[in-house]
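Why does this matter for the project? Reviewers at the last site visit asked to see concrete outputs rather than summary tables. In response, this paragraph embeds two records directly. Each consists of the residue sequence and, immediately after it, the corresponding structure tokens. Nothing has been edited or filtered.
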Amino acid sequence: MTELFNNWLFIFPIFFLIYWFSLRWIRVNNILLFLFGVLIYSWGNIERGVLLVMLTVIDFLLVKYIYPVKNFRKAALFTGIFINLIIWLFFKYFYIGNQMIETFSFPIGISFYMLRKISYLVDNYRKPGNLLCDFIEYGLFVSFFPQILSGPIEKPDAFLHQIQNRRTIQLKNCIDAAQLIILGLVKKIVIADNLGLIVDRVFRLDHPERLIVVSGSLGFALEVYSDFSGYTDISRGISSLLGIQTAKNFNKPYFAFTPSEFWNRWHITFTQWLRNYIFFPLRRMCLKVFSKKIPLISDLFPLLITMVSSGIWHGNGITFLVWGIYHGLLIFFYRLSGLDRSRQNQNPVMKGIKWAAMFVFTLFGWTIFRAPDMMWFFRVIFSNQWGFSDYALIVSLSIISMIFMYALPLILLRMVELSEKAEQITKPIFYAAAIILLVIFSESGMQDFVYFDY
């Protein structure tokens, strides 16, 4: 898919010129965006685009013509959700490894646009008439090209409200957008792609010492953050050039003190989706059925189902399932023990301990997530040596030093953001240096984004 964008680089400027020229006509803008999104998504494999349009048509017809019939509203809702889920499950679990099916291209991004479509179906059911739109507008919501492959997962009402009103493009928006795109490319090309080479080598070892695995997990934590948040930055930058403001998906997740805070900072739109469409409905159902007499069920069950759903959404391996269960139990333990309470009036030492503990728990989770399989993970945990010998120690320190080197752009950016009065001077210098880094590292090309596979 990255090659697709590379081949289309000369088309984008032409599209943007036409789009900006037609800003006074909202309808024309929306048609252009819808058709361009479907065209990009279908490029090289028409089946992807056909599937996308077909599923979009089904949703729209259900909401437009079946929802208004009171006796069939609930049936229409479950039908729409069932169709979307069954198509997603088919490609997620039965596509890979089936040679007959694999003659068709895997619909990249289906895990993301499936969530957008379900949120539209549910929100229309909950609040009839609040999300009025025509087919082009709904099709644009699903196929919006900066987001269709890896999000963010926009809320229907927020997105539809923007595309139903005239957009304006201001110079400040263009400058901010350019900075986001540059930063996203640096995160991806300079940091994530280079760390990925190191991390892959660590997790391909059969019997790595634990110290090497720890350093590899640290590298993966930075890799997956840089890769995914880099895509989000690029997506937000392109959206801003179109006059559409999209959701922020990351907010310094590794500064979190508790698991709940981590998920409020990491993949924010996905966390909100899980909370609104899985956790809260399950929680209300459990409280209604069991009241608060059985807190283990009313508190733990919705949490575990939500986090298991997160794991299943990310991949079909057992490691993803265990990763989801791990985070569900971790959140429950913090709540049960009171560790997730406010940090106000806590001394700096206690805050430092809480942050360090949460960061270790996060790295442990990433180790499960990135492990080739659970047998490999259990060997590392229970059988392999710590590796404080000369060889393993040298390898681990080398990996950590390279992680620090590639993390320098993020560290410098944080220093620029904290400089306040000097930011007007330091920010242009930072982005000038970032462009130089991109010129140097772009020779090696750009790998596909990690979340294209989820």
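We now turn to the second protein, recorded in exactly the same manner.
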Amino acid sequence: MNKSELIESLSKDINLPVKEAAGIVDTILEAMTEALVNGEGVEIRGFCSLTVKNYKSYIGRNPATGIEKKIPPKKAPFFKASKLLKDAVNDGRK
């Protein structure tokens, strides 16, 4: 499922115009992004938690040339599925 399919599903499920459903989805995604940018976690009970992981710098190697290069520290979003979501996926139920 992609963003437009999510918007379409929301629009049909609660009988909203597609434009309003798109606004709702955009607002949710923007709020989640803003929370992660501010270093906060996002938890959606029964679905997932999103956090930001900090990675230290390290020495990497170019596989083609063998030249070593220092890779700077970075941050990356981290998704962790809830137990309910994992169980649903493994059991094949909705």
